[in-house]
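A protein record in our archive is deliberately plain, so that people and models can read it alike. The record that follows is passed on verbatim for readers who wish to inspect the format.
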Amino acid sequence: MNEPDDLIVVAHIVKTRGLRGEVVADLLTDFPDRFENLKSLMGISAEGSQRSLQIEEQWFHGNRLVLKFSGFDSIDDAKQLVNYDLAVLAEERIELPSDSFYEWELIGSRVETIDNQPIGEVKGILRTGGVEMLSVVDESGRDRLIPMAADIVVEIDKDKKLIRIDPPEGLLEL
C-alpha cells in the first residue's frame, strides 16, 4: 500500500455510465492530457483502502473523464468505484517550472515574515477569482487569509516547507 504522500489525486469518480462498467470522473488536475498515456491508476476509497485499477479505455465527455477499468464489466461492478479518488504516484507528476508549485506542496508549510516572525501553517489555498489566498492557521487556531500577491509572498521554499511574507501594515490584524 502506498503512503498518502506518495500519491497525487488527479480525479474523483462521481457516477457510473452505461452498462459495460464505465465510470465518470471529475478532473482534479490542471493537466487533462496526462490521461492519454496512462495504463493504470490507484483507486482510493473514502475509507482509505487502495486498489490498482488497469485502464482499458478512457475518453473525455465534456469536461469529465469516462473510464473503463479491467475487471469492472457491469454497472454493478462499476458502482463499487463511485466516490473513489483516482491517483498517480508522486514521481509520475508533471514537472512544473521552478517558480511554480502544486497546491499540495504548500499544505503544511510554515509561514513567517521576512523578519522571521512566525505566522502559522498553511492549511489550504482559496481561489477567489482574483488573487489566490493562503489559508494559514496560527498557534491559537485563528485562521488568516494571506493574498498570494508577489509583493506579499516574497519567497516559497517547497523543499524546506517555508513561505516568507512581507505583509502590508494591518494585514495580520484582520
Remarks:
- The longest strand covers residues 50-61.
- Residues 7 and 67 are 19 Å apart (CA to CA).
- The longest helix spans residues 75-79.
- The mean pLDDT is 88.
